[in-house]
Design brief:
Chain lengths: 356, 356
């Protein structure tokens, strides 16, 4: 292995208002970096070769100028974008990890990253992926990574589904939605999804086993579409989009319904003051609804339980997972931007190196 | 006792749009009614003499033309308005109740009511009120009635407060709010309330022991007022008003905060399409908030536990309860309407007869 290598990096050039565009980011050409930890890297640091990068909706709020405190710090203009990824350890002073280990967790949008404490706490060793593991390594950006645990926690822990209940999932072909739909079907629920194209709607009904699905862009009245799909109402709503869809759902919830609030992707690119109005919240009282927000990092302790539960379903084909893989670090900005226009079909990720 | 008596009745004349006015209701002069159950009253019926009527915000949505299913049926134009009250049993074919018993529950806005099954299930025998009981009978429209159980369930069950947490209560001098504030103080929380007049704000700080309070009508920026009162944020919001206050609260909630959604009184008199927009719901995700709607009838089983807990506090003066008592059935429409203009100071009720 060479003592140095060229490290390309994707940086955020400036804070974003509205929809992100390619010129908000820049792919810097490779600068030589050492392939060993340096003397001034703090104890516990880990040097990795990044293999897959994950494009996730939560990254958009981090691109905005920070207006107020948030659970997730904004990106810093001029610095490398960070996000979930899959990587191979090249050097490590973290006793949990050794050179050659595969890991998933928060890393940088670059060829090589030095992950330093406390961020190393989010690096998890991969036991089942890649050759011999029987599942694609890339799944650790999706079904076996943050989106997988998000779907599991949001559906099973937050929504507490019962057999026979009705479930609605928005952004249903996305990284998280496609899993919630399949988990709901496995739980004996009646599940309907919405997505933004004919192709995605077909995928929901054929590949993911949703009982029904609709293209929200072709529905002039979302509340009427939901009424058509759920004549008796919705017990569980897995919320990925917010805005007008949430308002329509509120009118169609059943008594004692639960709403797991995972994301508001329809709102992330709107400027302050442009956010969609929600006007039907009084349904929360009359229908005794529980709306609960959650984020995956609060539930990391459930990962081993989730992984043990989901792996057999992946291996025997009970659960499918559709990925949309962009090739090469240079394509990462465009892939991320595509999320906010619904261009991806399935989980969006970027492959930046073969698993050498 | 005479075999018949004059029965005055308050009817809803027509469905209400916007704010209710006195002409929406009518007090009909007394028609002679028998003071015994009649042969065609179904088994289990109870004839009562109404003593106190309760004016509660939830009655307003029942005055609107029913647009969609609701947990609470709309009133019927031309019929007697129903609501919570305190009454004495005159005749009963319900084995739980005997003539002379005092009861609280759903009755009519009239001198005498025949309560029929299944509504009789909501009639509860009063054990501690009136002469000898040591607490005013009228309290069974408030602290010992529906508002009391509402405050208890919403605060203790839905919000699960911990000592040292911060609590915000809107409509804080009302029938429910004044109790939530005192329960929060007893739970070792730091509690702040909002109300709509200087007099009410003083009451919060002096009589009810709120640590701080503000007049929302004098605050040009509700979010800034909350930031001033809660520099570290709000752990628990007891929601009685909705609309702009909810939007301001969302910006000031702390991570893992809880919002018990009890009422949206600011919205009840707005027409469809006029409802206030809520635009800050994305805080539910980032702050992992739980918003939960509830209504008191779902929690009736907790009443004995609540009554046993609260009675000693009433008797030893630890908990105060302020009532706003209108005199006579004729004043009932005006008293109810006053709720929606904040004219009441404390729990609004109507005394329609001495406890004969």
């Amino acid at each position: 292995m060479a003592a140095t290598a060229a490290n390309r990096r994707v940086i955020l050039k400036d804070y974003v208002e509205g929809y992100p565009r390619e010129e908000h980011m820049e792919v810097l050409p490779g600068a030589e970096v050492p392939l060993r930890l340096a003397g001034d890297d703090p104890p516990g640091s880990v040097l990795v070769r990044n293999l897959y990068l994950s494009c996730d909706p939560y990254m958009r709020p981090k691109m905005s100028r920070p207006l107020r405190e948030s659970y997730t710090a904004a990106f810093t203009p001029g610095s490398v974008i960070t996000g979930y990824g899959v990587a191979r350890v090249l050097d490590s002073s973290d006793p949990r990890l050794a050179p050659g280990d595969l890991v998933w967790g928060i890393t940088g949008w670059e060829d090589y990253s030095v992950v330093k404490p406390p961020a190393t706490a989010f690096l998890a060793k991969i036991s089942h992926g890649g050759e011999g593991g029987g599942v694609p390594l890339s799944y650790y950006t999706g079904i076996l990574g943050m989106p997988g645990l998000t779907a599991y926690v949001g559906f099973h822990e937050i929504c507490a589904p019962k057999k026979g209940e009705t479930v609605f999932v928005s952004a249903a072909s996305g990284a998280v939605g496609q899993l919630v739909g399949q988990f709901a079907r496995l739980a004996g629920c009646h599940v309907v999804g919405s997505a933004g194209s004919k192709e995605k709607v077909e995928l929901l009904k054929t590949k993911f086993g949703f009982h029904d699905a609709f293209n929200y862009k072709e529905e002039p009245d979302l509340a009427a579409a939901l009424k058509r799909c759920f004549p008796e109402g919705i017990d569980i709503y897995f919320e990925n989009v917010g805005g007008a869809m949430l308002d329509a759902v509120l009118l169609n919830m059943r008594v004692h319904g639960r709403i797991a609030v995972c994301g508001f992707i329809s709102q992330y690119n709107l400027r302050e003051g442009e956010k969609d109005a929600v006007r039907n919240l009084s349904a929360v009282i009359g229908k005794r609804l529980r709306m609960q927000g959650f984020i995956e990092p609060d539930h990391k302790h459930l990962y081993p339980q989730y992984e043990a539960w989901v792996l057999p379903y992946i291996r025997d084909g009970t659960i499918a997972y559709v990925e949309d893989v962009a090739e090469g670090l240079e394509s990462a900005p465009k892939a991320l931007i595509g999320l906010f226009h619904g261009r991806n079909v399935g989980k969006q990720l970027v492959r930046i190196a073969d698993d050498e």
